[in-house]
Amino acid sequence: MAGARGNKQPVGTITRGTTNPNRLRRVDRWTVHTYGPLLRAAAPSPVVVDLGYGAHPVTTLELRDRLAVVRPDVVVVGLEIDEERVRAAQPHADPPGLSFARGGFEIPLHGLPAPLLVRAFNVLRQYDEGQVAQAWSRIVGRLAPGGALVEGTCNEVGRLGSWVDVRAVDGQPQPRSLTLSWRLRDIEAPSVVAERLPKALIHRNVPGERVHELMVALDTAWSRAAGHAPYGARQRFLATVEDLIGQGWPMLGNRQRWRLGELEVAWAAVAPRP
Fold first, then answer.
1. What are the chain's domains?
2. Compositional bias of type Polar residues: which residue ranges (predicted)?
């Protein structure tokens, strides 16, 4: 991970930058649901950062529009290490609610309040697993009290992905949950999501690790729910989730979220083993 020289150079590495409209729709939908109450209760003009938005700022614009439904005065800042990407995004800026700046994990906000939320998607995939904790710590250290980091990855069209909800507890990162997301009619086996696990877990999908146990349990429950297939993938998935709950997996969320193809599990159930 690149360091900052005299606090002038952004901390991090330039990403590939690939993006597509609606690629992050699923995580945005979850963010609005999960953090809507926090945004509504925040002080005026809460700040949300989209870290590493890529070669085009379309997903940052979409984030601002989706959050504005629950908090019209939200301030969204898109940060990129690549100066050219920042310049290219400026025509899309809409002060004071939407701006773009150069920056990385140090989250420079140039006089704005500390961010309530940071979304970092498809950013850490290119890093080593051992660098994840450092990145989380650096970002969480910049959050407002009670703030959170949403960090994860998805495929190119956003139909398959996962993310970690990382809360700030006494200035330190405390992962709360892992969310897995599928477009249900595309599922052949739920474990396909393993190829899009966050960096903290993607190399842990091996026997002996908790996340691997979850992948096996998902596929097994999905197979047992085959009798629901004639009623559609959604009914089969709901039966799969109920099976997992019956086995003792600590599922969060509710039936409404599961119907959308979201499965949120407590972090302790999937956390890497030492």
1. 25-182 (3.40.50.150), 185-268 (no CATH)
2. 10-21
